[in-house]
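Q: Got a minute? One more chain.
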Amino acid sequence: MKIHHLAQNNSVLNNFLSEIRDKNIQKDSMRFRRNIERIGEILAYELSKSFSYKSISVETPLAFKEVQIVEDSLVICSILRAGLPLHQGLLNYFDNAANAFISAFRHHPYNDERFEIVVEYLASPNLDGKTLLLADPMLATGQSLVAVFESLKKLGNPKEIHLISVIGAEEGIHFIEKHFPENTHLWIATIDATLNEKGYIVPGLGDAGDLAFGRKL
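A: Always. Here it is, folded:
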């Protein structure tokens, strides 16, 4: 797996990351969603450099100009519900992309810290030959991404797979490396060192879905 860790180089991305982590600023859910969206736009720009391009001729009011545009057929798939602001950030840049949505949540069958990932809802176009952008803002244990990928396999074989996250834990990244094709790309804003006993990223930012859309039962 090729890992693209954007925070290794300083940029305005740091401003947005600091705000989504700040326990006082993140209380503003609208601002939190917009910051995730802006991080998605930055990730979209960076990953667009890896796409295939084709030349077209554009007619201006004065002449013709040859330009290079994205040739890949894109499908953006986000994991509900936390992935929606990140999805929007990607869609702002890749507005011609097809869209897919899938649900994945942690189920605790033994009423303790052990959990399994349950995938229930899936709406997606065929993925054969497509460039799949699989978005999940928090890459904690990595189990959600793997479970979602297993569910998507029945919809076809993508030409390329790009995983897109805001914050990830080193443990989760090592886990997904074992379960995705070797030529998969991970585009991630920043990486934290550890998970706590509940499988949450530390220092992380808390529950991205709750911060974006309110607490769930």
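A: The chain has a mean pLDDT of 94.
Q: Perfect, thanks.
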